[in-house]
Amino acid sequence: MIRILLADDHALVREGLKQLFSLTTDIVIAAGVTNGMQVLKTLSTDVFDVLLLDMTMPGVSGTDLITRVVTLTPHPPVLVLSMHNEPQIARRALAAGAMGYLTKDCDPSTLLTAVRRVAGGGRYIDPVMAEFMAFEHQDKQAAGGHQHLSNREFQVLCLLASGKSVNDIAQELSISNKTVSTHKARLMEKMSFSNNAEIVRYAMDRRLIA
């Protein structure tokens, strides 16, 4: 039996996945959590075959959380299930240590295949996403200049675009306001942004935020 730790802060998503996996005979959601700290706490007390992880949750999340998970001994393979279909986000998640990446609009059969593949020690990327990633280099403009940002700068960009203030971001990432401001200044310089409205417009155009 494949035991899943499900990490997603949306109740409807958690309930839908429970119903999907209940139709199988080899997969079960053994525990569910809604934020990054709960992920780390649960992994310290129990063993799972797969961590099915949303990229955007309260507190520590995204690549930061993946990096922390994969340093644990033991740790389950991480399969990302995200609303983001932007290749650069998937690339960063995989580079941080995720073993698979799917978007939430994938077919149920694709998700089941991915869970079984990752639980068995393999890797899985949704075929459509894999195609986008393979041909990303042919359209740098569409891929966006954010590919040149550091992981932290990219994270700050997405949080700013979602409407969070410097203080909010500092609290969520457990870093100082000054550090957030430094990351913001660097990303705005790299991206040639002059104000927050340009950050929001850029992120929405490239579906970096919902």
CATH topology of the largest domain: Rossmann fold
Estimate nothing, just give the exact number of structural domains. Answer: 2
The CATH class label of the largest domain is Alpha Beta
Strand order, main sheet: write it out: 2-1-3-4-5-6
Q: Give the name of the CATH superfamily of the largest domain.
A: Response regulator
Q: What proportion strand?
A: 5-15%
Q: Share of helix among residues?
A: 40-55%
* Structural class determined from secondary elements: alpha/beta
Low-confidence stretches: 139-143
Biggest β-sheet strands, sense, barrel:
6 strands, parallel
Query: How many DSSP helices?
Result: 11
What are the secondary-structure elements, in order, as H or E? EHEHEHEHEHEHHHHHH
Number of strands: 6
For the termini, the CA-CA separation is 34 Å
Which helices and strands, and how do they pair?
Elements: E1 2-7, H1 11-22, E2 27-33, H2 36-43, E3 50-53, H3 62-70, E4 78-82, H4 87-96, E5 100-103, H5 108-119, E6 124-125, H6 127-134, H7 140-143, H8 151-161, H9 166-173, H10 177-191, H11 196-205
Helix pairs in contact: 4-6, 8-10, 8-11, 9-10
Task: Explain how this protein is built.
By secondary structure, this protein is of the alpha/beta class. The protein is 51% helix and 13% strand. The chain folds into 2 domains: 2-134, Response regulator (Rossmann fold); 144-205, Arc Repressor Mutant, subunit A, CATH 1.10.10. It has a 6-stranded parallel β-sheet with strand order 2-1-3-4-5-6, sandwiched between helices. Helix 1 links the parallel strand 1 and strand 2 (27-33). Helix 4 crosses helix 6. The model is unreliable at 139-143 (pLDDT under 50).
